[in-house]
Design a protein that fits this description.
The protein is an alpha/beta fold. It is built from nine helices and 28 strands.
């Protein structure tokens, strides 16, 4: 859609996933056997026909750069427009901006050169299938200054404690923004705003020494802005801790959860050509996601295996997440474990965590 340009702001997203974010930002953390967390919001923007997407990054983004490349999986490898990965620029001695305002100030040419009139602004921690075209139509219908995207949660989880809540009246107007923990309207850190108003508010924030767009430009001005609330009703997960990552990953072993995330519209990711998974005669696999390139000789139950994992004969894996190219030798027992990429577990080892707190092994570790 030519009227929309996308901004994915990773600047304020802290690395809260423990060992999984030792060497990468949260948006680059692998998920569901073959994806990265960034893939979901990127795919939502792609399905909305967004032709220009900017990523605000500051830390640990080498893995993210490798994954995104020129943006081909999301149809963003274009001669004009496409994918822009924008670290902050510190070369302007007159720049007084800070935080995410620094990204907006130092990359104004991205906004000015783009022909789109509206901005979709998002983070990467809320996984969903939001229809941005429908949200944009709702924004126009409401004649709002800004439309905040939210969802109603039936059962609140610990990860929701950090989320902002919205009060929305029967006319779709946001009447309050707060942190009341028992409130079920979760703000998904996504909003739509006219580009001119967005840049104007950012300039005001910088002039007043402010650094956070939602807090300083929207929340503080809620009495002066017409703020609409667009309710999203599909799959939703918040990944802002190791526990939430583990639980939401394991939930995908339930067919209804998996289908609600992946069947409505495809999720695009970096393409890697691998041979099909190979199951040896000694393999026993049940209720698991197994990616291409795996070779299974042991027992795998209720687990997620990424590409190229080797499970030797006699190994037993239960309720675990094993990332790309890990090698699990014979007579190993893993339960409630997360192994990051390229981990080697030698023969006879036993690692066990708890369903509420999995045991995590960092990338490139040999045990």
């Amino acid at each position: 859609m030519k009227q929309l340009m996308g901004v994915i702001n990773l600047d304020h997203e802290l690395e809260l996933l423990g060992e999984l974010t030792y060497f990468r930002c949260g948006a680059a953390v692998p998920f569901a056997g073959r994806y990265r967390l960034i893939d979901f919001v990127m795919s939502n923007m792609m399905h909305a026909g967004v032709l220009d997407i900017a990523l605000f990054v500051r830390r640990k983004y080498r893995s993210l750069l490798d994954h995104l490349g020129e943006g081909r999986p999301w149809d963003l490898d274009r001669k004009r427009g496409g994918l822009f990965i924008l670290p902050p620029d510190w070369n302007d001695p007159t720049d007084v901006s800070s935080g995410e305002m620094q990204h907006i100030h130092n990359n104004q040419d991205f906004f000015e050169r783009g022909s789109a009139e509206y901005v979709i602004y998002s983070g990467s921690q809320h996984l969903s299938n939001v229809d941005f075209c429908d949200a944009y139509a709702y924004h126009l219908e409401q004649e709002a200054d800004v439309t905040l995207i939210y969802t109603k949660i039936d059962r609140l989880q610990p990860e929701h404690q950090q989320c902002i809540r919205l009060d929305v009246d029967e006319n779709g107007r946001v009447t309050d923004i707060h942190h009341e923990r028992e409130h079920s309207n979760i703000y998904m850190e996504m909003f739509i705003m006219e580009k001119r108003r967005f840049l104007h508010l950012a300039k005001q924030c910088i002039a007043h020494g402010e650094s956070h767009f939602f807090r300083d430009a929207i929340h503080k001005n809620r009495s002066r802005l017409k703020i609409a609330g667009y309710e999203y009703k599909g799959y939703h997960a918040v990944i802002n801790s190791l526990e939430s990552y583990y639980r939401n990953s394991m939930d995908l072993l339930q067919p209804e959860k998996y289908n609600s995330l992946f069947r409505e519209q495809p999720v695009h990711t970096k393409i890697k050509y691998e041979v099909p998974a190979r199951y040896l005669q000694t393999a026993e696999v049940s209720n698991s996601l197994v990616a291409n390139g795996c070779q299974i000789g042991g027992t795998v139950e209720n687990s997620i295996l990424f590409r190229g994992v080797q499970v030797k004969e006699g190994a037993r894996i239960h309720n675990s997440i094993i990332m790309q190219k890990c090698v699990i030798h014979g007579d190993v027992k893993l339960e409630n474990v997360i192994l990051d990429k390229d981990v080697i577990i030698s023969r006879g080892r036993k690692l066990q965590g708890d369903v509420r707190k999995p045991f995590v092994v960092a990338k490139d570790t040999a045990i």
